[in-house]
């Protein structure tokens, strides 16, 4: 295990502190005095065009951030990740989600610990694709011979957020006549609502769980199994235990790294798709966890998605840091968090199809970098993991943008938009996509350049209201554009944020691939369950606040 380099002890950090101290951010002036600023700070990565020029950085700051990357040995750690070294030190695992999207035949082959990773990945992919084709073509049927019309993915966290986000994002690519639903929450409402109106004979369930131990997923899998059998019995199409196994075999498949546990659950391992412990849950949408997607959008589109991921991987792996978009964006985030004291980071896609993208990024970024110890167990030496959040524009404009424009906090924001509309609608003569994009362009300009008191007065505003109508500007934003929201572009976007997260983790000395912080709550929930069910001893073992809450529950529960 290499000891992380303390970023705060580097020469670059000292330089950055100094630059921050003397910085007088003024994007209006910076742009006026430097007509090349936008061009110099705009980059391309695969199909993405990324404009960093509206961030609060000077050339000196960018140079110092790049020095910081050198000093913490970013490229060495990146190369170690791609090579399959065990950089997830607290779990002693390789981190190889990038191997999931290596094209067939890529040379040299990736062999880790004597295992040919490329062969393993493509064998599984081929199996997923073959199964997906069978479902899509109607060759795979339910127990009564009817074709599958609804696929329900049961999973949580990384086994849910990726699939649901991509499913929503790529709606135009979903096969007609196929609907996918997603059950994640152990709130029984989720199963109840997600199975509402479904025909058991035409429904396929995919139980997706890396560990196959997750309480929510296994509970929901059992509930849906019971639902399936009850409904098939009710319809009179199966009867008796003997036919249950057949029904489960035709209506349940699984995705997991623990195929033995899949078998224990009663799902035929023949109908299970595996992956490996070197894929973190939140990095797994491009593994067999994406089976629901391969069915929904088809193997060819799924392959395009993977190709997009790979294109961004190659950009990150091979591009010099000065032009390396994930590296620059990750370093900028470090600047925003540690020097500008930004506590949050907004992601604002101008695409309704990306409405689950911020939620997806929350797990990716916050489960990865929400840590206060480094990978060697020592405390971190600076602020880490900012809170990611967001909503699609323009909805957010009419809700929370007020705070970004005129509040007292720094909220760096990523704006994402696509040139090509998915639906080229017209309102009279007006192209609605252009109205939409005009907002995208306007917001980052407004945030950067603001509006002075004199400009407000020039509009004839009454003096007493002038201060309320001034916009200070100098609010940092990044604009990301792509030709269209295709499977490939979506893959590029996801990989971009994966690598940004990695870069931040390396600077902070964090193991971005474990998630021990989710364990305590899980353990306590197990301990508390008997108390909730009314066991006095278990109840009295709880703290007074928890006892009070459980008593409230027990008094008010009627059913
Ligand atoms: O509890 C957190 C977590 O482990 C996530 O990291 C993971 O994505 C999720 O639970 C689901 O885990 P699994 O796929 O093993 O069911």
Explain what you see.
It is a single chain. With 559 residues, the protein is an alpha/beta fold. The protein has helices at 11-22, 27-33, 37-40, 59-71, 74-83, 117-137, 161-169, 188-195, 215-234, 241-251, 259-265, 291-297, 299-318, 325-339, 357-369, 401-406, 432-449, 453-458, 466-469, 487-508, 519-532, 536-540, 544-556; strands at residues 42-45, 48-51, 111-112, 115-116, 150-154, 179-183, 203-208, 252-256, 272-274, 344-349, 387-389, 413-418, 426-427, 430-431, 477-482. The chain folds into three domains: 7-72 and 319-514, Rossmann fold; 111-299, Glucose-6-phosphate isomerase like protein, domain 1 (Rossmann fold, 3-Layer(aba) Sandwich), CATH 3.40.50.10490; 517-556. The strands form four sheets. A six-stranded mixed β-sheet has the order 1-2-15-12-10-11, sandwiched between helices. Helix 1 (11-22) runs antiparallel to helix 4, helix 9 packs across helix 10 and helix 12 packs across helix 13. The longest helix is centred in the C-terminal third of the chain and has 22 residues, at 487-508. The radius of gyration is 26 Å and the shape is globular. The N and C termini lie far apart (55 Å). The structure holds 6-O-phosphono-beta-D-fructofuranose (F6P). Residues 156-159, 209-211, 214, 217, 281-282, 367, 515, 518 line the site of 6-O-phosphono-beta-D-fructofuranose.
